[in-house]
What does this fold into?
Amino acid sequence: MDQSELIKKLRIDSGQRDASGESHRWMWVLAIVTALLIATGATAYYVVGGTRLEVTVVTAAAPSASGADTAVLQATGYVTARREATVSAQITGTLTDVLIEEGDHVTAGQVLAHLDSTAQKAALEQTEAQLRAAQATLSQYQAQLEQSRRDLIRQQGLIERKLTSQQALEDAQTLVDTGVAQVEAQRKQVDLGEASKRAAQVQFDYATIRAPFTGVVIAKAAQVGEIVSPFSAGGGFTRTGVGTIVDMDSLEVEVDVNEAYLNRVTPLQPAQAVLDAYPNWTIPAHVIAIIPTADRGKATVKVRVALEVKDSRVLPDMGVRVSFFEKSHAATSGPPAGVLVPAAAIVQRDGHNIVFEIDGERARAKAVTRGAAFGDLQLVTGISAGAQVVKQPQPELTDGAKVSLSKQP
It folds into this structure.
């Protein structure tokens, strides 16, 4: 085969070139579309939080009160109420209404329940009728006395003119004296009737059970239709109370202090209480009194501790740990409001101070308000003590982004 024939075989005609060019163009289009899909998927994956950012977290801590840094003793005890009462009726009767439930807040004098007052109402109406009858009789005697006095005056005029006898004058005087005695006796009957009415009114009022003081209902002990009595019944079918009320403002702490360490506790000594239910919440407190008796079996002495902060989270019979401090507090001492976080944890987002709090696997942006600075720490409000926050948020960290914790000091 000569060279001319070889050149002809290597030559590509125009149809083959067009098909090859079209194939290359489709390959380029497919490559561009694939790259766009990959970029879009990566962007969407990052937007929905699929990309994990590695962050360092710290725990927001509550600041401690100044001057209370030396605990000389710790003891455990329970929250108790100085004012707690099981409210009962002062008479025996059947409940017709019970107007309380557990958790209700009641005020002093508020109606809690009603007893069947049919008999008491009848007795009250009877005494009112007797009082009205006594008052009517008194009016009658007073009218008779006035008439007797007028007759006496006439008899005295007649005796001066010697137109009547001395006997008639004495009879008129006797009628006046008798009328005065009758009026005075009837006044006593009216007083007796008023006293009887007051007694009947008291018995009638006993059918309405009221709150003795302001507090919270912690137990409901009786239902409509049950018999309530101030006396205990041996059969067990009579209730001795309608409900139990606690004055939440009277809550305090009672702790058992070992006899060997009792010399470390004094009245008015500063202290700090931590509830078992809220271990990150410290409550300023002070010693009220040392109860002057010891428990022979446990070799302990009870100490009453006052809570200086009233809060709805404090409930009767909660477990509590009390720390007694050596240094005294000023009247205004106490931990400042807020929590401490590193200053680097606070960043600016849209003109607001933001910290990123860890919520599971995500970082949540929380707006905070700056307070005083304590070295490298910053006092802020807007998050709670114990919260985990990002120590140094990256610029690309956004609300809801997935994070991976690298370290937890």
Notes: The longest helix spans residues 118-160. The longest strand covers residues 282-295. The CA atoms of residues 159 and 165 lie 7 Å apart. DSSP finds four helices and 24 strands in the chain.
